[in-house]
Amino acid sequence: MRERLLYYSVKYDGDVHAIKRAILHNEAYESITYPDPYITILDDVYPQEFLLLKYPPYVLYYKGDISLLNKRKIAVVGSRIMTRQGRYNCETLMRYVNKEYVSVSGLAKGVDAYIHQLSLHTRKTIAIVGCGLDIHYPKCNSFLYKEIESHHLLLSEYPNGSRPFSFHFPLRNRLIAALGEKLIVIEASKRSGTMLTVNEAIELNKEVYVFPYSFVENHVSGCNVLIQEGANIIVDNETIAEL
Which terminus of the chain has fewer Cβ atoms in its 10 Å neighbourhood, N or C? Predict the structure, then answer.
């Protein structure tokens, strides 16, 4: 069955719906070789957090230390255009949050990349990407890809060669939301991928923590909206330390 899942995943570019149809129709398959490590939904090491999703990935491709999936994890997300305050919030979070946590983010520009960068030498980090692991997107984060796959964990539901299509990233966000015990929002506009990740976390009954902003900072007003709707507000360093 593992061979079937790998074949379908590669054939259908990681599309969970197409893979499910292939399984239900008992579609023909053949044994193929794959150059990098992978796990399937049938394996013991498959993260239990993903089984709570409506559409869990059937195959996960990885580079690095797969045992990090067994550690306590905290998901951190934010804007691709990071503000000075957002940068400070990232630094504060990583300074005071429990070192036991492995940070989880999406290796995008801005907050994601900075969280991974801050984690490289202080804790472990897991990057979940929306393309094949052989494609470094965005290219400006290539050095992070290399560091993470060498010393941390790089994860994707998309096989090698899969391009970073825009529709991949909302799907990637559900994995970030699922993997963390809690979700921390550094900064967000009202309409953004960050807000989609928050919605996924809420669906999974995850606690959401948010840094507040001045009401005049409209470009990150999504944070205050989340607080108004009931998210936990990060008021000081003690709040972070107690997460």
Answer: N
d(CA 221, CA 235): 17
Enclosing H/E stretch for 66: none
Q: Which helix (H) or strand (E) holds 24?
A: helix 16-24
CB 186 within 8 A of CB 103: no
Over residues 147-192, the pLDDT tens digits come to: 999 999 999 999 999 999 999 999 999 999 999 999 999 998 888 8
CATH of the domain at 75: 3.40.50.450
Query: Would you say residue 31 lies in a domain?
Result: no
- Reported as type and span, the H/E element at residue 232 is strand 232-233
Total number of domains in the chain: 1
pTM for the predicted model, two decimal places: 0.96
Q: Name the pLDDT band for 130 (thresholds 50, 70, 90).
A: very high
